[in-house]
Amino acid sequence: MNSRTQTITISGPVGQIQLSIDLPESLKQNPHTELRGLALIAHPHPLLGGTMDNKVVQTLARTFNQLDYVCVRPNFRGVGLSEGVHDEGRGELDDLICISDWMRTPGAWMQSLPNANEQLWIPHVNQLPLALAGFSFGSYVGTHLVQKLAELGRPVERFVMVGSAAGKWELAERVPADTIVIHGENDETIPLSAVFDWTRPQELTVHVVPGADHFFHRKLHCIRNIILSNWLGFPRTSS
């Protein structure tokens, strides 16, 4: 994605998991930069061409980098160098749990990143908050990851859902009250009405991008602007 992106593999439940790590520009300019946190970003359906290099996923990573988050974009099972086969979200959830554990382990970063000794945030990585974002199928798996991590006593800082998979896959019943839900007005894959049906009982706000399709062609900047305004313009509310 940029000169600050590193692609590595780590050990997962069924083999190697390929992931890209995106460091914010601020770290390159000043290794003493105080990071806001870590961001784990899940891509769309692997059997429909979804990868960690999807444009929406990369937009999410750039946005979180702008907010001074270190981002991790994994490939789901069977995509790129990630081993295993598609497991309809079950195995993918296991992999994301594994990755979230890896992200909170200083030694894992020290072994995986070139020049890790120059990254002054790594020894304290287990103290950084973890944000989560998912696009389409990734948002479906993300709802269950949010739920699972909360059960384990490790709640995510905040969750971003883009092109929510409501009505297509069985999302978790509830997500945190401050979840950012972004959807295209003209989404041909996930009807906006299905998103409202899922969010209505939870009283979640849906940020509708006028004229946007499922992949947000020519509307990627809207995703960035919505996330930035919610992160920087409004205080976090309790769930």
Q: What brief labels describe this structure?
A:
disordered C terminus; 31% helix; 239 residues; eight-stranded mixed β-sheet; Rossmann fold
Protein model, in words:
With 239 residues, the protein is of the alpha/beta class. The chain has a single domain, classed as Alpha/Beta hydrolase fold, catalytic domain (Rossmann fold, 3-Layer(aba) Sandwich), CATH 3.40.50. 31% of the residues lie in helices and 20% in strands. It contains seven helices and eight strands. It has helices at residues 25-29, 55-66, 90-103, 106-112, 137-151, 192-199, 220-233; strands at 5-12, 15-22, 37-42, 69-74, 130-135, 159-162, 180-184, 206-209. It has an eight-stranded mixed beta sheet, sandwiched between helices. Strand 3, helix 2 (55-66) and strand 4 form a beta-alpha-beta unit. Helix 2 (55-66) runs parallel beside helix 7 and helix 3 (90-103) crosses helix 5. The radius of gyration is 17 Å and the shape is globular.
The CATH architecture comes to 3-Layer(aba) Sandwich
Classified in CATH, the superfamily is: Alpha/Beta hydrolase fold, catalytic domain
Approximate helicity band? 25-40%
> According to CATH, what is the class?
Alpha Beta
Extended strand count = 8
Distance between the termini: 33 Å
CATH topology: Rossmann fold
Q: Determine the number of helices (DSSP H or I, runs of at least 4 residues).
A: 7
Biggest sheet features = 8 strands, mixed
State the strand order across the main sheet. 1-2-4-3-5-6-7-8
Structural class estimated from helices and strands: alpha/beta
